[in-house]
Amino acid sequence: MLEIGFIAASVLITAGGACASRLSYLHNRKLHVRFGNEGEGIAYDLLDAIMASDRLDDITIGTGRLKSSAQIDHLLRGKKRLVLVETKNWGGKFSGGEDDEHWLVVHRDNVPRYRRNPLRQARRQSDVLRSLFPGVEVEPRVLMVGSGFHETAFPSGVYRKSQTTELRKLIEEPGTDEQVRQTDAIWDRLVEHAYSPGHEKRKARYVAAVEDKFIEKPWMTWLFASFSFSVLMFAMGYLHHAMIVRDVHPFS
Asked: 101 and 116 in contact (C-beta within 8 Å)?
């Protein structure tokens, strides 16, 4: 009877832990999406303020497959180049370099979390853009619109809200007649591609591919719970066996 009670308690504890873990993850995911949407709104206003009105916002380029596609927050049309802007609405303290795969972010709860390096994200998006439109000159940049700060200094190519005039300089830099013609021609093709028939399906397919690779699935939580339960049951079985041996051979 005691063993049944142990098993029932173990099941409840493990299932409760799995549910709590899942709910916590979904809550954090919801906050992440909300902060992302708020950041996009802030970026719209900042880009409007520097007269960067000739731009594409929230576009998905490519086929929709993960390796050959990219979701771009903002793409600005310049005289000699395009400027790709990845927006982040992060709080807390950051640490990480230009080429690091991840940055360490510490929020007010003092829990360190690793986030993908936004500069690397912007560079990858630029690489996809160049592969789709050979000859395009594109400068990847990151715009931090949140309250977060870097523990030393942001790497080159990462701007605070107060530095948006740097983006203006990039799009205003004059180019040769050939550069201007090429940029204009590629921009026209890009607009046609970004809003071609089926672009919503392409975006949905890419989002699904990203979630499939990076977003935690419910079965992962329950798999971890099952593993934890198995370990717990093994430990209880071992303890029960040891107690029997002690009772049978009390002086051994």
From this structure: yes
Nearest to 85 by CA among 121, 38, 37, 49: 121
Q: How far apart are the first and last CA of the chain?
A: 27
- Residue 61 CA to residue 12 CA, distance in Å, equals 47
DSSP for residue 126: H
Q: How far is CA 206 from CA 27, 59, 71, in A?
A: 23, 11, 8
Q: Which two tokens stand for residue 121?
A: 């994200």
User: Pairing mode, if any, of strands 158-160 and 112-116?
Assistant: unpaired
Cβ-contact 80, 177 below 8 angstroms: no
Q: Where are the domains of the chain?
A: 1-49+217-252, 50-216
Q: How confident is the model at residue 227 (pLDDT cuts 50, 70, 90)?
A: low
> Which 3-state string (H, E, C) describes 72-88?
EEEEEECCCCEEEEEEE
- Return all residues near 94 (Cβ < 8 A) that are at least 6 apart: 103, 104, 105, 148, 149, 150, 151
Give the model confidence (pLDDT) of 53-72 as tens digits: 899 999 999 988 888 999 99
pTM: 0.74
Question: Looking at the predicted structure, is the pLDDT value of residue 27 above 50?
Answer: no
Q: Alpha helix locations (H) across the chain?
A: 2-49, 118-132, 165-172, 177-194, 199-214, 218-248
Contact 166, 159 (CB under 8 A): yes
Confirm if 56 and 194 have CB atoms less than 8 A apart. Answer: yes
